[in-house]
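Lab channel / #folding
Pinned by the channel admin:
"Please post every new chain as: sequence first, then the structure tokens as a reply. Keep commentary short and put observations after the output so the thread stays searchable."

First post following the new format, from NK:
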Amino acid sequence: MRDSTTSKEKILKKIRKALIHKSPQEMGDIDNDSEIFTPSDEPLEIQFAQNFSALNGKFIFCENEEEFLENFDFIAKDNEWENLFCLEPKLKELLKKGKIKFSDKEENLLATDIGLTYCECLIARTGSVMITSKQASGRRLPIYANFHIVVAYTSQLMNNVKDGLKYIREKYNDQLPSMISTITGPSKTADIEKTLVQGAHGPREIIVFLIDDVPLN
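Reply from TO:
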């Protein structure tokens, strides 16, 4: 016991001595702007699709909004989706254009099976969907439904989280939303008897429809 205490005292003595006699060497300027990862040569939409799919997300590319409506209608009928819920004004108009039935009544929110939302942006580096509380869908819809359907545009693709946060700051003039979150694949947990369960505390499936809105050069 005495040997242990002596060793501890020696270590503490060295630490105190080091704190008193600080090194005169000064740290240089820290580079916070350079990329940590090696930049990819792939376009952002390809990077996002690969990383998002690797996380068990489902990705569907659409050349325009008309193709999105066709694809969504086909998938909805093929999977027998019901109880579609949407709160996004522009997205509701798009669904009406495609004659796709949905609900936007607050009392139906808890019973919804399919939640359809926009997003703030997509993060290509991590395959993540960035959402905020300032969206019409708010905090609840992205986690209430069993299936979360995200409609995004190629102009919303960002390289990394830093670029996504910069985009949000500029969009809201530094009046940041009270909640900024990234969704990286369907929710899952292994807390229950060490068995992996998908959808334990949120949607068990997330699908991103990416609509091309960037004109060709």
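NK: The mean pLDDT is 84.
TO: also worth noting, The chain is about 30% helix and 20% strand.
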